[in-house]
Design a protein that fits this description.
The structure is a homodimer. The first copy, chain A, is mainly alpha-helical. Chain A is built from eleven helices and no strands. The first copy, chain A, is globular, with a radius of gyration of 19 Å. Chain A binds a DNA duplex through helix 2, helix 3 and helix 4.
DNA sequence: GCACCATCCGGACCAACAGTCCGGATACCC
DNA sequence: GGGTATCCGGACTGTTGGTCCGGATGGTGC
């Protein structure tokens, strides 16, 4: 950076979590200053919702490159400034979308029932987790690629990434304390690359990537190959 | 070469040709030629050199984002059109630089003496190869990151990538025919991510990434006896 | 119902970028 | 030295991510 007045600082400003579930905007705005809890204005929530929907629509119909913020704003029927005020940057927007799509898995991993949630043996939790994450990745390869592109260097500081990484590392360490679980967790996550997923997913077998990742993990753990039904 | 001593060990262990490499890939563009081998004009060769050196200088002093083609052209003392005529695109420029820096390893792997070249057991060749590739990656993390950024989707069609992938896959398959060597090769290469390398390399231990990758590979192969102390 | 003010909106605006083009310069060959 | 294919330079274009601020809007207290 250091080129001119335009540094990427705005990107860090990324406004709070995107709220909406599948249906309609909701109010939320966690904000940081909890004391001055400001409820998000109705039009703001509406716009955020519209922007997210527009983003996924563009993502679906064109490639990841096709999603410029001008287009997003236009399709959402809002001004460009609005997009930036909500999401801080292109990376923030994509990240919000990604987070929205992985929130369920995150919750399930934290509080849900086994085998995803706590309670099951590490190996089974691992397989379940990779199944879930793989499913999300397979369904959002384009979004993933665009996000990686936009995030660039900051990817590894990202909160979502760190959550997945910690979870994965914990499970690996539980099963194989002798290995470098931290690095292996990075290695497994490195495979979740949008472009690679697209490269490896044949038309007829949408779950192949996930199976490969699971197999990779089992090999790392020194598999006894539990015959599981996928 | 002859500029920054970026890749240390690999450059030593690999018998290298001196820096006077004549030309990189001519990046398609003009030379759909055939037998009519066109000799590059002297000024053209001079300029390509200047551009490459300017690129690495900018890469060294600023971040990867700092390398805009305008700046490269300016620093090289050539026009912008020249850069594009030589390298086709930003991605092409970075790739040429990357290729220049990994050519020695490539040759050593193909024709060199064991353990890098043919002749040694697959496991040892694998370790040597990862050592070499890791060395290059550690010394060029910024360049790597910039290249990934620029390549985006096309990364997996890249000739260099495919060469590394095939080599890795072959070695893995030789040692463990029961595994999905193709996927595992992708997985190992996925770890060679510029940003990740920077994230994982502590100031005091520049070779840690390589060691981790080697360990990963050994774990995959089901190491019982490490072929050498890591 | 009204008025007030924080909050938010819109889109004009900006700098920077990758990539194109073509008149003019130049190296090479004879 | 002359001729020509090749190459050079940098002005030019179209698009992008990101900023800014006058003006509109929603929420709230009355």
């Amino acid at each position: 950076m250091a080129e001119s007045g335009t540094d990427g600082r705005a990107a860090q400003r990324v406004a709070g979590r995107s709220g909406g579930e599948t249906e309609g905007p909701d109010r939320g705005q966690s904000a940081e200053g909890d004391a001055g809890r400001r409820v998000e204005r109705a039009d703001a929530a509406r716009n955020r919702y519209a922007v997210l929907r527009a983003t996924e629509q563009l993502l679906a119909e064109g490639g990841g490159e096709h999603v410029s913020l001008d287009r997003v704003a236009a399709l959402a029927g809002v001004g460009k400034g609005t997009v930036f005020r909500r999401f801080g940057s292109r990376a923030g927007l994509l990240q919000a979308l990604l987070e929205e799509r992985s929130r369920d898995l995150r919750d399930a991993v934290t509080n849900g029932p086994p085998p995803l949630g706590p309670g099951a043996p590490a190996r089974e939790r691992l397989l379940a987790f990779l199944d879930g994450l793989g499913s999300i990745a397979e369904g959002n390869a384009i979004l993933l690629a665009a996000h990686e592109q936009a995030c660039a260097e900051d990817k590894y500081d990202d909160l979502s990434y760190r959550f997945w990484h910690r979870h994965l590392g914990t499970l690996l360490a539980a099963e194989r304390p002798d290995l470098d679980a931290d690095f292996l967790a990075h290695a497994i996550l490195a495979v979740f690359d949008g472009a690679l997923i697209r490269h490896l997913t044949p038309p007829g077998d949408p779950r192949r990537f996930t199976r490969s990742v699971q197999e990779l993990a089992m090999t790392l753990l020194g598999t006894a190959a539990p015959a599981r039904a996928l």
